[in-house]
Amino acid sequence: MVPVDVYAPGCPPTPETLIHAIETLHQLIEDGQLLKRRAETGAGANVHVTEIAAGEQSVPVILGIR
To answer: Is this prediction's pTM over 0.70?
Structure first.
């Protein structure tokens, strides 16, 4: 079983469905819902995310496990 944040129905999904799924996921990220749920449940794939405030100096993003 794989947890899913947004489901895009169809096989293959239509372009409109994919756009809607991406916009929904984007809104969940902006609202902080994904990080909030991860903190509450302890779920995640051991990928650590640090929020950077807008306007701060840009930094490289490294994906992986610590």
So the answer is: no
